[in-house]
Amino acid sequence: MTRIPGQRAPHQRAPRQTAPAMTGRRLLVLSLAGAATMFLVQPPLDVWMLAWLAPLPWLAIVQADRLAAPHPWRSLWVGGLCHWLAAIHWLRLPHPATSIGWVALSAYLALYVPLFIAIARRLVHGWRWPLVVAAPVAWMACEQLRGWVLGGFTFGGLGHTQWRWTTLIQLADCLGAVGVGGVVMAVAAGLAAAAAAITSPSHRDRMRSAVWECVAAAAVLVVALGYGAWRIRGAPPADGPALDVLLVQGSIDTELKADPEAAGDVARHYDGLTITALADGGEQRPDLIAWPETMWRWGLLEIDPAEVLPESVVEQTLAGREAASGTAGVTLPASAADRQAACRRVLEEERLALLAAYARRYRSHWLVGLDKQVITPDVPSGAKNYNCGLFLDPDGVPLACYSKQHPVMFGEYIPGADRFPWLYRLTPLPAGLTAGTQPVAVTIAGRRVAVNICYETALPEAVRSLVLKLADQGGRPDVIVNLTNDGWFWGSSELDMHLTAAIFRAVEVRTPLVIAANTGFSASIDGSGRLLARGPRRATATLRVGVRPDGRSSPWLAWGSLPLGVCLAVAAVSLLSGWSRQGSLEKR
User: Is it true that the peptide bond before 391 is cis, omega within 30 degrees of 0?
Assistant: First the structure.
């Protein structure tokens, strides 16, 4: 039989049709498209339903057979930079100098886009993993890594977009918010595989694989929802009285350059809101009143006994105390040590006296955010500064003082400035914070009440550690009170991101969490992550909420981020295994 030239013989296999290499222009377009879609699903636009489609442009880059761009990571980094500049635009608001931090942090976070694509491509093209497995593993590895490096930055996670879907986010008590993001990425990967199969030159060859990937993605979602429904059904019944908490939300924009004369105005602002709320509540006083972070501007003072105060300060202080008490003419302590001790006591008690007067007027336990300065010769600057939450009883007696354990790098302290205080002269920060060392809990109305401050709700391991340490010390907390001052951010989308982080922390440790936030959002969140009450944006409010313990155990409390660390280990091995090749961004 005569064969027509160019015709394939019956026994010959058709040559494999390969897709053309992705050009540099197309790579940049997809990188920027992914930046836009991933921003679209985050606040302030918050089109959260589209989060399941948002990763598709970046996943198309992962699937491409070859990347023709000579340095593809540059285009990917540019996409990541555009995304993060838009997502955390609020970081430029507190002070002109923070614009530098906004750009620097965005440039750093942008590195995770090429890193994600490098890992995913290595798993897909090097290890031959299906996209529906490779993409979630790579994504969770990168999100977990940015939650660890430089103290951790967890805002803007893919899983955070789903906070309204209460059933889905129950998975956070196993794998944290990062794990919920992995579910979203798995579904997106299944859709990406289907789209690639439909548009592929070898359509029939790839369709069967794509069907299985879609089935796997659907199975992941069904399992996550099934687990969530089971965990919600296991929520404890509302037995016993709830802890009655009054959350006071003022609205005072905050500047890095503090105005000492504003302290009285801030106190009157919050006191007025508190008195009005108590009057509206009738005779029934709340069990606890909470004021936000640093809204009491006259900080506490402690003086190290090793600190020798100038004699002029000692004489003036003790003479002033005598005159105020009407005991002028009484002989002062004779010894220098006794005079120093008496002066320290007077100076420290002066700061507490006004606080005690307010607490007695409220006739309730009061948790108030304030600063504390410890004068000591042990540090070159001569003082340690703490960001604190102070518990007082209805008689104004201090019960416990918590010092923030996780200050924000470059926002609340400069690395190395404890040894070289002059570094603060290069920044708008007047001084840096010293980290506290221990969590604190107080029993109020039979409930264990713990406290953390501001950004600490964005750190999953910090909240887990708080719960575990308090459980070892005397009992797991029944509620965590977060004191926040978000007045730096002028009512921007930072408020939304901060609140979302708190919702996931409540699920992870199965502990109700209430927030007292200057300018918002004050809120009450139960142990299933349901938002029970929320204050307004950049406006005043008082929220009277009842808080009931949850007390359920969670796998997250048992193993923390260990499973996510496994994803990170897999990612590292995949990259190292291809180190000698042309690069993880190109298929060999």
Answer: no
